[in-house]
Amino acid sequence: MIPAMGTEGADLSPEKPAESASYPYPVLMTNASTDASLVNKMLNAMDETFDEYKDAAPGNVGWAMDRQSLSWVVPYHEGAIEFFKSKGMWTDEDQKNNDMLIKRQEVLAKAWQDVKSRKHANAAEFEQDWMKTRAGALTAAGMDAGTSNW
Fold first, then answer.
1. For strand 2-6 and strand 18-22, is the pairing parallel, antiparallel, or unpaired?
2. Cα–Cα distances in angstroms (integers) from residue 108 to residues 9, 90, 98, 101, 116, in the given order
């Protein structure tokens, strides 16, 4: 989530916004295995044709390049990074955040495999093991676990 001022919706406008939290919208997602050239070309197409579709739906303003939040909570694909670099938008801080997010995924994937490898009597026991293992793995890696219980 990122801080946002809502200006579209019931009783909202640019003159009467509501302070809130949001996430980048719309969002394109893909797997890391997707060809980098395809991802790059998709972003180029979205950028180059923006004026043709920006007014087609209220949320389309989110595709504008000046509205992109590049240090987010999901890592960017190498093809997307290449695109944002070509636009002069990708910073060292964005790369540092992206590298941390990829490392976080690796830590969580290993923790998940560890939990799956153990026997659990029931779903509740599995859930408790996952909560504890997840928080422990993130903490050991020097990362914020956010919570250790839900």
1. antiparallel
2. 37, 26, 15, 10, 12
3 state DSSP class of 3:
strand
Residue 55 CA to its chain's centroid (Å): 25
Q: Is the peptide bond between 26 and the residue preceding it cis, with omega within 30 degrees of 0? A: yes
Query: Which amino acid type is present at position 47?
Result: D
Q: Domain limits of the chain? A: 1-90, 91-150
pLDDT digits (tens, 9 = 90+) for 41-95: 999 999 999 999 999 998 899 999 999 989 988 999 999 999 999 999 999 999 9
Give pLDDT tens digits for 13-31.
999 999 998 777 788 999 9
129 conformational bin, left if phi > 0, alpha if psi -120 to 50, beta if neither: alpha
Length of the chain (residues): 150
Token pair 């599995």 is found at: 126
**What is the DSSP secondary structure assignment for residue 59, as one 8-state letter?**
G
